[in-house]
Amino acid sequence: MIPGASPSSFPELLGESAAMRSVHAQIGRALDVHLPVFIEGETGTGKDLAARLIHDRGPRGSGSFVHLNCLAMDESLLDAVLFGHARRAPSGANRRGSGVLTAARFGTLFLDEVGELSSVAQCKLLRAVDGGEVGRPEVRIIAATSSSLEPAVEAGRFRRDLYYRLRVLTLRLPPLRERPEDIPLLAQRLLETVCRRLAVPSHHLSDEALAALGAAPWPGNVRQLIHELERAVVVSEGLEIEVDHLSPELQSLQADRSTRGVSGQPAEPTASPSKPSDPVVDALLRRLACLSEPRGTILPRTAASIAGYRLIEKIAEGGMGEVWRAEQREPVRREVAIKLIRPGLETPAVVARFEAERQALALMDHPAIPRMLAAGSTDQGQPYLAMEYVRGVAVDQHCDQARLGLRARIELFRQVCAGVQHAHQKAILHRDLKPSNVLVTLVDGQAQAKIVDFGVAKALAQPLTEKTLQTEVGQVVGTVEFMSPEQADLTQQDVDTRTDVYSLGAMLYQLVSGFLPFSSAELRRTSQEELRKCMRDVEPAPPSARLVAATEEVVAIARRRSSEPGLLRREIGRDLDAIVMQALEKDRTRRYGSVAELSADLRRWLEHQPVTARRPRGGSRLSRYLHRQRTGIAASAGAVLLLLQVGFSAHLALQQLLDRTPAARPPPAAASTPSEEAPPVRRPGRARDGSQARAPRAPLQPREGIEAGRSPVAAGP
């Protein structure tokens, strides 16, 4: 099985041969009954896929599918695995937790390789079956084996009573060598899946390579075919796979076949054509493809043909339409996506919605919305829509596979917001925004989000079609996990752009935390009234609160975001919590008024600015300002420190210079005799009689005396 393949598509079970048509018929008869199913088939024939198909397409599709590999099960832990008991404890005592029987309640328990159970394990499983744990309406058991158990039963290695309890409905999967006519279709479909998984352009098989694949015995069945195609894609240099790109074993088979053809020996018998179509089997095949509806009879579709286009493969299917990858041949050659109405649903209401979607796409022109290329009617008279083919994956899968951090996820999510805001500016509501309706593709090496499926879009202004288009009373339009409370209302008469804001908030909740605001099991197992009450009254926990427990699931979620549980919780806390919870407000008057406001708050979070969803305190504002201006503040602080250092250094240098230079002093005067001593200078003051006293004047000296009184330095020797 190819990792990452959708469990609802199962290309490994494709086939138009009589053997596979019988398998499809048997699966269809086993869907609605609660009896055990026993699947026989060689290794690699797809036994686990058949079991999963019966579970998913039946009434237990919303329950758990528990896969138990009997070959790898420890006999000593069988009680704990089945019943949740401690080792060697009596029934109903010392429970450590729920076993697989409890986990599979209202679902399916798949026992793979049941023939490998030991005799002790067979007795315990028989006790569970006889005791009502397995086989009751709450738990359905599907057993599988790669070899026939009848010889083991005859030899006494497998209990006969357990064998007949499990073998109520029998399904045998034929090996690939018994249906060679299915190999071309199967190889082409598997090759497309392999190319998508390896992220390479689509390859195709040459006629010689297809002939070589059809001549191989395939002891490993479909699993071996998958590995052969993987090898060929890696080895091939172009987009066409030739015989030289196959394994040496297949090349030798093709060479031997060519030699026998040239020498005149009888060639190997070719596969016989399929039997004529059986109406009963056709109806079951349509049911397996989810084409049955309780409101009417589904008529088989005549192969749709559109002038100028060639339909290649169906790539998606929804409630009312299906999307095909096609090749436009004229007036230009290019790859496009063709959307058609599902067969049997060509009612006036569905046709009106289809025309509304065509008109909605015609009004919009934005990088986040696929361009509509053409529209018209098929040769059978049914409307079709040709639009840009988006080769991408859902936004949540892209983020997890690329291990994008929170910032990269928010930047990608803002592209979605821009596309939705553009639709709102054109007065169009999407009403079904969810991760599977947002594909991510690469444009010039950069991730680009594309919003698809405007099938339930609603116009706010002018009508999108002249035909009557209204929602029936009691009909819920959209996906409940991402639906606003007012959209879940039965009338849906008062829905505006804020309903898309709520859906975007639910998407953002899942992108940042890995959880949904309300789990699918919680919403889909309740009645319509309980669903509306839950969406109207119950407040979901903030995203960061879902990451408190350090479980394996939380650790895996953090790794897919290139983080750790504690760090991721702190990054989401406060601001992102506030943004998400404001978008998910029950009262739409308290939500963001538009998608542009939500995107603007996310931009503020990316730029470390205060967000409007949370009124920060002064300390928070200061810390955000310092974080935003950290470069300028660091440069300014460095300049101030540099100036202080230069000033202090200059001060120290000046002080050292002054210390090294002696102070200028007057030269010492010659000693004078007492007779030549000058009379004391009297300070000005008052005389004894109170009059102002004058200071005595110095006696006048002749000019020669003054000249003679000059210093020796000035006078010379």
Query: Which architecture of the largest domain does the CATH hierarchy give at level 2?
Result: Orthogonal Bundle
CATH superfamily of the largest domain: Transferase(Phosphotransferase) domain 1
What is the makeup of the main sheet?
5 strands, parallel
Say how many strands there are. 19
Write down the CATH topology of the largest domain.
Answer: Transferase(Phosphotransferase), domain 1
CATH class of the largest domain equals Mainly Alpha
| Global morphology | globular
Tally of separate helices: 26
* Structural Rg: 43 Å
**Ends: how far apart?**
120 Å
Strand order of the largest sheet: 2-3-4-1-5
Mean pLDDT: 76
**How many domains, in number, for the residues?**
4
What percent strand? 5-15%
- What helical percentage do the residues reach? 40-55%
Query: What structural category characterises the helix and strand content?
Result: alpha/beta
Low-confidence stretches: 1-10, 86-97, 261-303, 466-474, 671-677, 711-717
